[in-house]
Amino acid sequence: MENNDILIRLRYAQDIKNIDMVEIFKLGGVKVTKEDVLNMLRKPEEVYGEIDVEEDEEYIKCNNRMLESFLNGFITFKRGKQDPKPGQPETPPLTNEHVNNMLLKKLKIALSMTSEDMLDIFKLAGITVTKGELGALLRKPGHKNYKECGDKFARNFLKGLAVKYRG
Fold this sequence. Notes:
By secondary structure, the protein is an all-alpha fold. It has eight helices and two strands, in the order H-H-H-E-E-H-H-H-H-H. The chain has helices spanning 3-14, 18-27, 34-41, 64-79, 99-110, 115-124, 131-138, 151-166; strands at residues 46-47, 50-51. It has a two-stranded antiparallel sheet. Strand 1 and strand 2 (50-51) form a beta hairpin. The longest helix is centred in the middle third of the chain and has 16 residues, at 64-79. The chain is globular, with a radius of gyration of 16 Å. The two termini are 24 Å apart. The relative contact order is 0.15.
């Protein structure tokens, strides 16, 4: 799943306004304009039946660094600014983990969810996830029980969020 697609789905599920998207990016340390956000949220133009991102000059592709900064800003937007503890950096360091795993972790934090809440959201999307599977998705890379989160899980989680928050 593309990062732009994640932004589109998350924006819909949480009913985030364009101006709030700009603010969330700013809280995450990325400066974008309202026009930049609109260009990230639209589908690239199709040329001869194929999507051609290179030819579409206005389309802005959201890379992993931008998405993670957005999610960090989303945490701050939802929960408020947290004072760093002594010896802790001002902004969280960017991770090198799989995008979908990072998405689940950061949304869990931003929306103050428990693992039970997350399992309920998966259930709303129509899939059953066990506590063990969810725990494996939320582990750090390198842990013996770590499991990479596939696009299907991430897509269904965002779908479940939309069902929960948008009805």
